[in-house]
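Note to self: user wants both folds in one dump. Writing first protein now.
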Amino acid sequence: MALYSETVMDHFRNPRNVGVIENADGVGEVGNAVCGDIMKIYLKIDGGVISDVKFETFGCGSAIASSSMATEMIKGKPVEEAMALTNRAVAEALEGLPPHKLHCSVLAEEAIKKALEDYYQRRSQS
């Protein structure tokens, strides 16, 4: 049995939404001190909907695939729906991750939530 699903391999080899959004409406960065993975998510939000999302991930293939899948899952969605994204949903969409790589889907969830929290904080200050 293969360690990684075809979906994981596809998102690792052909990641979606890689890059930076200048003047993003929300930015979230998280890391894992044990493995050294770092994820940064950028959000552009128009009318309460995520119109664009980009990521920069420094880490393993599972971290890149999790970032790619998570950004695909929230693009075009209302911010409330994106805030409800779980690492479990990301892992399921990737057709599973090895147990020792599940933390990568947790990082993706946390990075998106941090970016959304940043968005809400910026809105409350303006």
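First done. Writing the second protein, which came from a different request thread.
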Amino acid sequence: MAGSGAVGVPGLHALDWFAEPRATGRRALSGPYVGCLCSDTYSLTLSEPVRCAGRFAGVAAAGVCLRDVEAPSCCRCRGRCPPPRIWFSARARVAASADPAHLTGSLTRGPDFAAVLRTARTATWAGLTLVPCAGLPLVLVLDERHPRAGHGTSTTPSAT
């Protein structure tokens, strides 16, 4: 756990995985990013604020290799969710994707994923279905019109 006054960690307070839970009081997801410290692979950091006596005391966080999240997530959805299946963070970064047109780590313009997470309700945007993932700061984007789903053409958020 990283405390609010962590010693020896320069710039800790500016890192997304620390700053977002401190500012919002909610769970956060940072990344994906290349985890240079341990794995040299795409990683995610999941974090949650810790409170003591009602006051912010620090952040509990865990780094996870994306490959350990991506494959099981895609498999759990298989047969229930039409392709393409794309998971976005609140900051519009592709966290996991079963669609080669949306590369992991890329940024996207389009829906307000943070708002979908705040309301915790399924929403629509430009014909897409945006599903907040219970307990995780991720939004699953479904496009049932995608050619691989057997319907018309696809309109997915545009890459930046």
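Dump finished. Worth passing along: The first strand starts at residue 2 and ends at 3.
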